[in-house]
Design goal:
Length: 445
């Protein structure tokens, strides 16, 4: 009997722990405080607008269920999706800069081939160069927690929403350019145009997801200076513009059944961003017979400004499905990134009757110095005139230190033709995975 009693006590204790854990989880899913205060203020309004009445209908229903019965609707009101716009703008700009860096490295490689007397290298009279590089990348961003430890379904006492939603993303990039080698083989200058697309799809909730789509155009000037056969210094300056379209799930109030459909609605956004970026780098080439080993360092700076915008909603029928009042007005954003790079690159040329093939590998240590957690200011147009806090969003601090591994092969052919294919992958990054494949064609004339 005593043994049975002990077992029953153990089961009861275990059940209590489970219930306590569930209670903690449901508390974390409470509605952000700004929405509660707007809802309370609208309750004192005797003549609400159509949008205000619908907002109150949704808010009251969600508050009644915030014991965990409808976490999906609460999650849809937390708008962590806003941070992706800045991240995507920075990533797109950095990938364009990376395409130009690849071009400069390949051009130096071709110069070395010509300088060594190899007919597959640059022709002495071929001072101009044209290149076209393409790239495709795919990865995912993990769901992250806020700066003070609250998660994507954070503490309801916070007026500021914390954290970022998980997302899968993929993108395409194209860069074309023209450059000139000055006599003496010490100075190269060039200009390039870039186009990129990046699509992000949110994946961490059981709902229609939402997405962010970016299209960008970039114009760059670049130069490389070779003071000796072993030392080089590179510089790249770029400007760009992105168009950004996005959607995020929002609750819908069904007036026919007087119920909230958790995340069946969509809020849409359209905005633009402007970029300014600069990159400086230098390296030293060691040669042991045909093997080339190049340690290098680089500093990449990017600034992006995202224009203010106001969302629109799709469902706006007072007699049926209605998401009016759920839209946000997002203020102008400014995002900075400063990445320091320490890397090593190695290559080994292999001559053949058809050309010179150069297998190569690189490993970089990247350190982010500037992209801190930032505040994205937003407001509810439905709450204009009400003395309530803004439902702003604070992004997470992403992993600052990570590695980038690159493997590839380039080929130098007669008469100034060359090309390459390369794969790059992020390593040791706790928040982000990203793998890219790049290919390019070059012609010296």
């Amino acid at each position: 009997m005593s043994l049975i009693k002990d077992k029953k006590n153990t089961i009861v204790s275990f059940a209590s722990i489970v219930i306590s854990t569930i209670s903690i989880t449901t508390v974390q899913a409470q509605l952000p405080e700004p929405y509660k205060q707007v809802c309370a203020s609208l309750g004192n309004n005797n003549s609400p607008t159509h949008e205000q009445q619908n907002f109150q209908n949704i808010c009251n229903d969600v508050i009644a269920k915030e014991d965990g019965a409808d976490n999906e609707a609460i999650a849809a009101l937390r708008h962590e999706e806003l941070s992706v716009q800045g991240n995507a703008s920075l990533d797109s700009s950095r990938k364009h800069t990376n395409q130009i860096t690849t071009r400069i490295n390949g051009l130096r490689q071709s110069i070395k081939g010509g300088a060594s007397g190899d007919n597959n290298g640059l022709l002495e009279s071929s001072r101009w160069g044209f290149f076209a590089n393409v790239g495709y990348n795919k990865g995912d961003r993990k769901q992250t927690i806020g700066i003070d430890g609250t998660g994507a379904l954070g503490d309801a006492s916070q007026a500021i929403v914390q954290g970022e939603r998980a997302a899968d993303f993929d993108g395409d990039a194209l860069s074309i350019g023209l450059d000139y080698r000055f006599p003496g083989e010490k100075i190269i200058v060039g200009t390039a145009f870039g186009y990129s697309k990046l699509n992000s799809h949110f994946t961490d909730q059981n709902q229609s997801g939402g997405n962010t789509k970016l299209k960008g155009q970039y114009l760059s000037v670049y130069s490389s200076y070779l003071p000796s056969d072993k030392i080089y210094m590179d510089g790249i300056v770029s400007i760009g513009n992105n168009s950004i379209n996005g959607s995020r799930p929002v609750p819908v109030y069904d007036n026919r059944t007087a119920t909230v459909l958790a995340s069946d609605g969509k809020a849409f956004s359209e905005t633009d961003s402007q970029q300014l970026s600069a990159s400086i780098g230098m390296g030293y080439e060691f040669n042991r017979n045909a093997l080339n080993i190049t340690p290098y360092t680089r500093l990449d700076y990017t600034n992006t400004d995202i224009d203010a915008y106001t969302e629109t909603v799709l469902d706006n029928d007072p007699s049926a499905r209605n998401s009016s009042g759920m839209a946000l007005a997002v203020e102008k954003q400014s995002v900075d990134s400063l990445i320091g790079v320490l890397g090593i690159r190695t290559s080994y040329p292999i001559s053949s009757s058809g050309g010179v093939f150069v297998p190569q590998a690189s490993l970089e240590l990247n350190r982010q110095f500037r992209q801190d957690a930032r505040l994205i200011d937003a407001s509810l147009p439905v709450a204009i005139g009400l003395n309530t806090p803004k439902p702003s969003t604070k992004t997470s601090q992403l992993d600052r230190t990570y590695l980038k591994l690159g493997l590839g092969v380039s080929a130098l052919f007669p008469n100034g033709h060359s090309g390459f294919i390369q794969i790059e992958s992020l390593q040791a990054n706790n928040d982000l995975s990203d793998t890219a494949i790049k290919a390019g064609y070059k012609l010296e004339f």
